[in-house]
């Protein structure tokens, strides 16, 4: 089960009581508090497993934090750097009136400029 709401405590006692034995919970919602571990039962030492009072097991990957960031490394900084640079340059174009507001592709001039600067960094 993926926790993708980003809301604290979204998986409360009622929903936890309905989890099947062996369920695996993985967080993808930008928060690590979508489920309170104290509600899951007793932690099994050295594992990511909690034992419910009735014997069912609940496995919480990476403590419920964003699984792509804590267990798989997330996005490499180069990808984040490129995406954020494109966003900032596009917003600057809107702010200065050289691009229209609204959803649209990155203006070609910005796309080529940013791509050229990133290519220069690689050589």
Quick structural gist:
With 123 residues, the chain is α/β, with parallel strands linked by helices.
Describe the structure.
The protein is α/β, with parallel strands linked by helices. It folds into two domains: 2-70, NAD(P)-binding Rossmann-like Domain (Rossmann fold), CATH 3.40.50; 77-122, no CATH class. It contains five helices and five strands. A five-stranded mixed β-sheet has the order 1-2-5-4-3. Helix 4 (77-96) packs antiparallel against helix 5. The longest helix is centred in the last third of the chain and has 20 residues, at 77-96. The chain is elongated.
Output the keywords.
39% helix, 5 helices, Rossmann fold, 123 residues, 5 strands, 2 domains, elongated, alpha/beta
């Amino acid at each position: 089960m993926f926790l993708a709401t980003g809301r604290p405590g979204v998986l409360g006692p009622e929903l936890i009581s309905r989890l099947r034995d062996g369920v695996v919970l993985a967080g993808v919602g930008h928060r690590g508090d979508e489920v309170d571990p104290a509600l899951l039962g007793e932690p099994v030492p050295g594992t990511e497993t909690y034992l419910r009072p009735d014997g069912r097991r609940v496995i919480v990957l990476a403590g419920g934090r964003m699984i792509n960031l804590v267990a798989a490394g997330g996005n490499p900084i180069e990808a984040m750097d490129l995406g954020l640079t494109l966003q900032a340059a596009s917003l600057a174009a809107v702010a200065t009136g050289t691009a229209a507001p609204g959803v649209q592709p990155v203006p070609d001039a910005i796309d080529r400029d940013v791509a050229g600067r990133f290519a220069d960094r690689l050589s």
